Each structure stands twice: as C-alpha cells, then as structure tokens.
Amino acid sequence: MVELREITYENMNECFKLKVSKEQENFVASNVYTLAECFVEEREDGTPFTPYAIYADDIMVGFVVYCFYEKSSLFEDNCYHFWRIMFDTKYQGKGYGKQTVAKVIEEIKTFPNGKAEAIYMSYEPENTVSKNLFHSFGFIDTDKKFADDDNEIIARLSI
Fold first, then answer.
1. Fewer CB near the last or first residue (10 Å), C or N of the chain?
2. In angstroms, rounded to a whole number, what is the distance separating the alpha carbons of residues 42 and 58?
C-alpha cells in the first residue's frame, strides 16, 4: 500500500534522486525542476500546488503533484490537475501507479483547495503506460492543448 507524504527538508534530497529510465525522460520534468515550478507558479498566480513523495513500506518510490485551477480558457470548469507523477525506474511495474492515482483522486474528491467538477491529466502520445493507467480510472481524452506543448494529450475525469 502506498502512502503520500509531504515534501520536507528531511526527504527533499531523496526525492531529487528519484529518476525515470532514459526512455522516459522526455515524458516528465525532473523533480528538482517540478518543485521549483510549483514554488514560482504558486507565488506568481496563487495556484495551490500539492506535491507529495510516494512511499511504499517506508521507501520513497515516486513523486506526485496535483493543483487546483479555477475555470479558464484551457479548463472549462473548476478543476484539479494531475500535474506530475513519476516513479523511480527501480519501482515501476509494481502497482504503485494505480494505488497512487486512486489515493490522489480520493483526496481530490474532498476538495482541499476548492470545489471542482473535474480532474485533468496530460500525457505524451508515446507514453502508453500513463495513458492506460489514467484511462483505467475513466479519464477521457479531450481536444484541449496546452499553449506551450501542443503535442500533449489532455484527458478529463468528471467528479
């Protein structure tokens, strides 16, 4: 069973050391970059980000971030967004992804940062593992595109 824990000074460096395989590097930004992005974007526009280290049996196996967005030109409703999810290459294929997505969806449904109608996630078309994982929870691809990356597919789950 996975556990989500806050990123702290005590576990931050361990989080920075988590790495995906070479083949997956173009699918997700580094954890250092992601945490910096969370800090800067939250400070600049107030977007609340929720980053977690993912643990299994007291071992950090991955990292996940979700955030809350109010209705905008990109998101047609108040929503949460699975902003990043990654698992160290040593811990992939063990079911941690499915457990983590279920746990984050459960937390999002408590509306910790605001009421929402949907959860969004995005993935590179070549990332079939991510696509299949999120589709197994009922996410459906949309025709939306991020302005800075029109290759990524955005999927939506009504909540």
1. N
2. 29
Please give the mean pLDDT across all residues of the chain: 90
> 82, 84, 68, 63: which is closest to 12 by C-alpha?
63
Cβ contacts of 127 within 8 Å, gap of 6 or more: 24, 27
| pLDDT tens track for 76-114 | 889 999 999 999 999 999 999 999 999 999 999 999 999
pLDDT digits (tens, 9 = 90+) for 27-63: 888 888 888 888 887 767 777 889 999 999 999 999 9
DSSP-assigned letters across all residues of 136-148: TTT-EE-S--BTT
Q: At the top level of CATH, which class does the domain 2-158 belong to?
A: alpha beta
| Token pair in block for residue 20 | 């995906």
CA distances from residue 72 to 9, 58, 68, 69, 77 in whole angstroms, order as listed: 34, 39, 12, 8, 7
Task: Using CB atoms within 10 Å of the CB of residue 134, give its burial: 0 to 12 exposed, 13 to 18 middle, 19+ buried.
Answer: buried
Q: Are strands 59-69 and 118-123 parallel, antiparallel or unpaired?
A: unpaired
Residue from 121, 132, 127 nearest 155 by CA? 121
Tokens of 14: 């361990």
